[in-house]
Amino acid sequence: MSSETPSIPETTASALTGLAAASEVERLRNAPGWYTADLCDDWNFMTPSGGVLMSIALRAMQAELDDPELRPLSATTLFMSPVPAGPMEIRVELLRRGGVAAQLRAELSSTTLPGPGLEVSATFARRLANGPSFTDAIFPDVPLPEDVPPEAPMERPAFFDNLEIVQVEGPTVFSEAGWEPSNALVTRWYRYRVPQFDDAGRFDRMALPPIIDNMPPAAFARIGSEGPPLHAPSLDLTVHFLDDCADEWLLLRHRAKKAHGGFGTADVEVWSRGGRLVAVGTQMMIFRSMPADPPTGFRRSSGTS
Asked: d(Cα 242, Cα 53) in Å, to the nearest integer?
């Protein structure tokens, strides 16, 4: 498959705060390991995307390492209390630094709302020239994004203003027409409206957690639209960064394998447009009733995703 994609119109991109700018961190002077960030509400579901908060913590870790050859290999986040948009602080602790890999821990919390926020444990590593190389997974046989008619406009959280999403497998959950219970599987193409590439021209690994943290629709596909209104905040999120690509469009296959006792687990494969397995992720979610009134500052997108 070709990796060539049309560029995002400048007028569309310029109206948005790109993820790299939104998740930028600043080192505090005379406070080793401490960083600050200020996240706008453009990345909110009800509160900011957990994946975006994870990206902020990972950027602080990368800044603390100060070595571009050490790149994220795996990371696990525990979400302990809500972190609203606005000012936040990140405390990074270097646990171990070797010749090939380094392990770190980061705590991210709001400076305006009390609570522990979230904690990320991560491994950063250098690329090695030796070792086996294989992929024992199959690229999904689905249409390309340009071959799928656009969805009708629908109201969605502001987070989705930052993305183009083309669904190619599974029901369109939260649609006005409703949806029948089906397999707990949703496959979508994702593209950032503001392209996310690093200085080497690779898709920025820090931009993976926000799109990976979209697994609940797979569970809602299985539940159907007749049940009570629910949302499913993440309790944890794990990402394994496996490979690089230079594609704007990424294909994510989300699958929810089990729900029981108010909790559910799901996983995701992330594929490049060219058929390369770029990352995998998994998370535990908790099912909660949808609040009648969204939190202050919550806004919805009225456009297509």
From this structure: 21
